[in-house]
């Protein structure tokens, strides 16, 4: 809730100079993902690195030492160029190591699944599903930002908060927001009128900008990004087909 409010606070408002703030926040429905999967059987084995990543990790210290002050992007670019210039024979040791790690991973994963209870197996599937949905939505968020989708309009209270944020004391962002919300509630209707008008102006801004943006999306063949009355306003989580855990299969057998 706090992160959503901050996104609203840092979006664009009207042309009032002291209140014009921009943010990369784009409203996309994200599904909370568990930070880790812990069971009585331990954590699942980690997916192994491929050949290129192993080469990258080996070469990165060499490049950084050779070019002091080089940026992360330039390091990655140089290593990618080096990898592309290698012959298949030169790449083979890295690929062989990666394949051996993959074979070990598959075997460990098989044993890990066999130790899971049906409940643990279902929890693991749910976690994987959440990660897939979150990854998809983050990708959409980046794409919408790249395509310049207009920021959503803010409410009167959001505009008030963004205007006063830098002037409010407080050791944490949450403390500042709490103090500002208390100040907002103390304002009478006459004092809130200015902010409500700004909010209405911002709605007009958004209405015009989103229509123009959607028209442009249709012209470039991206109708999938255009709003539709038949579509849900929120991203729906698609359920993965229910799978049977190894423990359940053995029980049936």
From TrEMBL:
GO MF term (any one): DNA binding
One Pfam short name: HMG_box_2
InterPro entries xref list: HMG_box_dom, HMG_box_dom_sf, HMGB
Superkingdom of origin: Eukaryota
Annotation: DNA-binding region: 45-113, 150-214
UniProt keyword terms in alphabetical order: DNA-binding, Nucleus
Region ranges (Disordered): 223-253
GO annotation terms (biological process): regulation of transcription by RNA polymerase II
Compositionally biased tracts (Basic residues): 230-242
GO cellular component: nucleus
Domain HMG box: 45-113, 150-214
PANTHER family for this protein: HIGH MOBILITY GROUP PROTEIN DSP1 (PTHR48112), MITOCHONDRIAL TRANSCRIPTION FACTOR A, ISOFORM B (PTHR48112:SF22)
Protein known as: HMG box domain-containing protein
Species this protein is from: Conger conger (Conger eel)
High-level lineage: Eukaryota, Metazoa, Chordata, Craniata, Vertebrata
């Amino acid at each position: 809730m706090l992160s959503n409010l901050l996104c609203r606070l840092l979006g664009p408002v009207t042309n009032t100079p002291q209140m014009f703030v921009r943010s990369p926040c784009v409203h996309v429905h994200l599904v909370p993902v568990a930070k880790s999967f812990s069971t009585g059987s331990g954590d699942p084995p980690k997916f192994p690195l491929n050949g290129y990543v192993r080469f990258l990790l080996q070469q990165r210290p060499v490049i950084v030492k050779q070019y002091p002050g080089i940026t992360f992007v330039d390091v990655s670019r140089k290593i990618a160029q080096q990898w592309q210039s290698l012959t298949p024979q030169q790449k083979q040791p890295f690929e062989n190591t990666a394949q051996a790690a993959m074979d070990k991973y598959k075997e460990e994963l098989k044993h890990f699944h066999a130790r899971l209870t049906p409940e643990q197996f279902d929890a693991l599937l749910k976690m994987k599903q959440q990660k897939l949905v979150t990854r998809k939505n983050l990708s959409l968020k980046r794409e919408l930002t790249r395509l310049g989708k207009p920021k959503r309009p803010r409410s009167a209270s959001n505009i008030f908060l963004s205007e006063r944020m830098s002037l409010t004391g407080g050791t944490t962002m949450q403390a500042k927001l709490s103090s500002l919300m208390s100040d907002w509630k103390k304002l009478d209707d006459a004092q809130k009128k200015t902010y409500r008008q700004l909010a209405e102006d911002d709605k007009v801004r958004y209405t015009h900008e989103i229509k123009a943006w959607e028209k442009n999306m249709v012209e470039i063949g991206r109708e999938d990004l255009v709003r539709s009355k038949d579509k849900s306003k929120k991203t729906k989580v698609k359920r993965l087909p229910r799978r049977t855990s190894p423990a359940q299969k053995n029980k049936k057998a």
